[in-house]
Amino acid sequence: MLNKKSPKCSPEYSEEELAIGAVFKFLRKSKGFSQKEAASNEISIPQLSNFENGKTILVTHHFIALLRNINVDMLEFQNAYNQYLKNKDILLFSVKLSDAVMDKDVSKLNLYLNQIKAQLTLDPQNKRLKLDAIRIKSLLYFVDQSNTINKSEQTFLINYLFDLKEWGMYDIRLLGSCAQFIDVIKLAELTNHMIAPLQANIELYHIKHAVTQCLLNIINIFVEQKTFEPARRLIAYLENSDIHEYFMFDKLTLIYNKANYSYQKGDADALDVMKKCLKVLEFCGCSKTATQVSDELKKLDHHD
């Protein structure tokens, strides 16, 4: 178990900087690596000992090499580091938000929003906190459409996304959560920016998966707004991206979205495909998603 301790350390480094060594030590020992094995030919054992015990810090290229030596990637390290400092982990926070939306738990989402607002009162110019607040408000809209984001928040969000030169996990999830508040022309442009082949991290496993989930949500928005051409292009993009069989839910969602696209364009038989997707969800025990899909299909039947 990773417990925070206060090492007797050099006053020239901050608590956050020295926590890096403590977390590395925990991960090294938990993986069963000795200091000699972790240091390898990268640094000396005394240097590693000083790093782990709060007496010094390492330059970045040495640190990355040491992580590789103990078979830990940056996502694992970030998660352990945030737990150690009791910080909010990006991925865990995203999961909590998604769970609250699936449960239609307005009170929990409002709790998260109020926590962000309290932090903003102390640091009103904090860009990350502003974006977090916008994201939570956008997610609240899914469960209670009386919630919305105002014009200035929309402008702040769109400007931030258009200024990005490299899209990371946070940015992809942000777009996926807030897409319904962006007009379809700008949304199509932003989506093209996100999946541009010049993105350095676009082929990373977790980035690719996040992009897929984001695009599936955006396809649904385009179809709902009868903006069929960008929806068609994104469907083709995902079909060509060869979603791995491990992500069966994503593959099923793509089939459902493509059928919905076809149905909205006049293919009545596509409704049968959507109903088959519902049966798969029910068979797999995905009760919350199945309920959402069932409600959508009832609306389509009623509309007919």
Automatic annotation (TrEMBL):
InterPro entries: Cro/C1-type_HTH, HTH-type_regulator_Rgg, Lambda_DNA-bd_dom_sf, Transcription_activator_Rgg_C. One of its GO terms (molecular function) is DNA binding. SUPFAM superfamilies: lambda repressor-like DNA-binding domains. Gene3D superfamilies: 1.25.40.400, lambda repressor-like DNA-binding domains. Residues 24-77 form the HTH cro/C1-type domain. It comes from the Bacteria. Pfam families: Rgg_C. SMART domains: HTH_XRE (SM00530). NCBIfam families: RGG_Cterm. This is HTH cro/C1-type domain-containing protein. The lineage of its organism: Bacteria, Bacillati, Bacillota, Bacilli, Lactobacillales.
